[in-house]
Amino acid sequence: MAQTATVIEAENQKIDSLFYYFNNGSDKKAYQEAHIALSKFKTNKAVVNTNLLLAYYHNKYSAIDSSIYYTQKALKSRTTVNDSLSIRLTILAYQLLAINNKKKGLYHESKKWYIQGAELSEKNNETNLYYTHIHGLASTYIALGKNVEALELLKKCVKNSNDQEIILGSYINLGSIYSSLYQYKTSNTYLQKAKEICEQDPNQKQALTSVILNIGDNYISNGEPDKALFAFYEAKKISFDNRFHNLDIIISDKIGTVLYSENRNNDALLIFTNTLSKAMRLGSLDIQMHSYLMLEKLSVRKADYTNAYHYGKRYYQIKDSIENSQKEQEINRLEVQFETLEKEKKIKLLEIENLNKSLNIKNKDADIENYKLQQAIIAKQNENQVLQFQNGAEKRKNEIALLKEKEALKAVELDREKTIKYIVLGAFFILLVPIVALLIIYYQKLQAQGLLNLKEKEINEQRVSSLKKDQELKLIKASVEGQNQERKKIAQEMHDSVGGNLAAIKLQFSQLTNHPEKMALIYSQLDDTYEQVRNLSHNLLPKKIREKHLVFLIKEYIYTVEDASNIKINVSFFDEDKINALNKNLQNELFSIFQELTTNTLKYAKANTIDIQLDLLNACIFFMYEDDGLGFDVSQTSLGIGLTNIKQRVENYNGTLHIDSKLNRGTSINIEIPLNA
């Protein structure tokens, strides 16, 4: 007796440890140890609980058939069915069977198990399990389209259950049903109650976000966009604070859609641009596709058809990739179905073979009689075959004699053909020798002509290189001469105007003790000197920057590049008047950055298209530059002089530079410069 009690206690402790592992994140360990322990357990209780644990494990990982198998095994392993523990286990098993059949789409089978579980729970006063089955039965009714029956059961759960999880699930399901019935006000009433429950539990943040999102959807369906935006922004804050990244981009997409429908185009543009970059990082193809579609619509509204074409193109590329992926999944599904059918055919064939074997055994005596008859027939056939063989031997002798005669005739024919071949080959070689000699002479002439052409090509290349160097020297000399003239002009201006004023001011200061009234004159001369220095610094800007606007200079440069190359440059500005009104020094820096990026693309990228976008929004300059060239690995490539200069120019204005490039995928450069920094 003492030994039996020790075994029961040890097995109970083992069961407790297995369930502890399963409920605390070590479900794999629980699964492995349960399989080992199942073959060693001696008590019925331990076997039943282990089978139930394995059923829960397979249910968690959607191995539905395995979960059903272990659930039924647990039910069959019971020895007693009247004690409270066994009854509770049975109710839990019924719940598992209902859940698994629902996952398989067998809703009527699921309904049967939920009803049996509810009846057994009510009979044995298991209140919590009773309402768990009632709630599950309601969800099955929803799947079957029986919303009236589901509403009745869910309201019963809300009224009588003490389990907050069941009440929360009931409120959410009630909100969903009333929303499908277009009763949005009633739906929001239940969703608000679900929201209050989630707000009381800090572990329900994700459920809270989903509930608020459903409330916002109801407001949109009811034609209340302002309330919908308020709900979406509330959900966005919760998802951002808790790093629910997937929910965050879904909410941003909904906010952008509402802003677009309200014609708040600039706000919608910022939302969808930000959402697109987040969706690309998370790999959310649906959100990427919808963001490109909405950006295309916004560009069309602004008559920016270049960007509209670009966004539309990206939208259809992602859409095609999704459709191709779905086709591959469908093909894989059909392959699995085909293999399943083949296996079923093999099983049926084996069944037929087994049936035939059983029939053969029953008809054994008849087979023996048939065998004796067949032996007699075979003996007669053997006699006939012997006679046939004898006749065949005579025929073969005659055929061998004929074949020998034919072989003798063929040998004579072959000798004659060999003689003719030798004569033809001799004549061919006699003609071949002069032809080969002529070909050798012709090849030597071609080789000499090729060398001559190569020399001429080298000479021409040297002449072109020399002309280029002369031209470069002339340009350098002209540049140096221009710089020298500019320096002389600046020095002369400094000497004549600023120097003269400073000398006069110095003289006035020397007489200030005796003539204090000259202080006003000194101030006037200082103001004049400051104005001259300011004008001189303005004159240091390039003439084209001083006389022309940035937008015009960029467009003029693009026309020059497109005329001199095969590259296509797409450019867009927003808003041009504000960009042209920027400080001239900043315009000069932006134009220099644009020239350096274009030069790098022409030199190294081998691109066909360049896309440029320069926007001024919310006191910030956004400069986007993309090409479809060779690209480079940013992590393994140090920045050259040009990109280093660009980075320095951007940092001088407290801006940020981001370079995104990969081999054979082109290069994308984003620059942001705040104007109020």
UniProtKB/TrEMBL annotation:
It catalyses: ATP + protein L-histidine = ADP + protein N-phospho-L-histidine. Residues 489-677 form the Histidine kinase domain. It is found in: Cytoplasm. SMART domains: HATPase_c, TPR. It comes from the Bacteria. Its EC number is 2.7.13.3. PROSITE patterns: HIS_KIN. Pfam families: HATPase_c, HisKA_3, TPR_10. This is Oxygen sensor histidine kinase NreB. It comes from Formosa undariae.
